[in-house]
């Protein structure tokens, strides 16, 4: 139900039963520095969805120019599935890729993925994802399984959706926590917020 309120329209973000990491009462470690400033707290994470995707074997290694230390690698996304309390969708086949860059002799990669979701009710959502992959130890061979104890693997998620049931996603500051299972990428998507479990505000 849409409820008018001042210059905004309130739209429920998640049901209160949806898991969230409520950090509303956890002081920020920043309070120990420049202590004359107002006290702050840690933000919370509201769960949005879990994504599983397959990467195409057609990896395109562009390489690096002579004046650069990084190498471009294009990793096409073959497809996948998304499931969450307010979103069920598939990743459109060959709708995007990860235009990653890597440093020579390192496993560290900067990620730059873009792809399209099609929801079960026929809507399209464009996803932009920029982040890092930094394993604890270097590996000469591509891994097939990566858990959270083995790498820092995070992305900043941005969504573009039309007006309607998914418009709230345009106003989400998204965080992706990545792992790999049997060669498939897994992304747990969260909304970073100061208001866990509460409504998102849309412009009127």
UniProtKB/TrEMBL annotation:
Keyword tags: Signal
Domain of life: Eukaryota
Pfam families per the UniProt record, alphabetical: DUF3237
Signal peptide interval: 1-16
InterPro entries registered for this protein in UniProt: UPF0311
The protein's name: Uncharacterized protein
Organism taxonomic ancestry: Eukaryota, Fungi, Dikarya, Ascomycota, Pezizomycotina
